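From the shared-data thread, chain only:
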Amino acid sequence: MSKTEPASGPAAPGNAVDTLARLAAVIESRKPANGGNPETSYVARLFAKGDDAILKKIGEEATETVMAAKDARAGHGSDAVLYECADLWFHSMIMLAQFGLKPQQVLDELARREGISGIEEKAARKLDEREQAERKQ
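Structure, as tokens:
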């Protein structure tokens, strides 16, 4: 099996939601408040360093993902895109946990947007933001 072929077993594509939920539970367990040890756990160390360290890491991973995509476009294969995207998702999940959010909430938001034009969805968000700003005045 090549590195880009779908996996089998617990992480098979049909079990993607379960995979995200299991990973989210592990990430949650790594919070220092839940017993995560920053001396032995990379994730616990990020949580201990706080929001800025987590956000910086997401920025780094996003940049690496973009660079991998540019390399793929130049004919260097797409494996690095997959790996870097996985890193970006992983660190995004750490950020979600930092702010008390779950991957299922992201999936629910994507499902809510399904079938809605991106242009219409963005316009509706801007209208909501304007209405909220007017109510605050």
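The mean pLDDT is 89.
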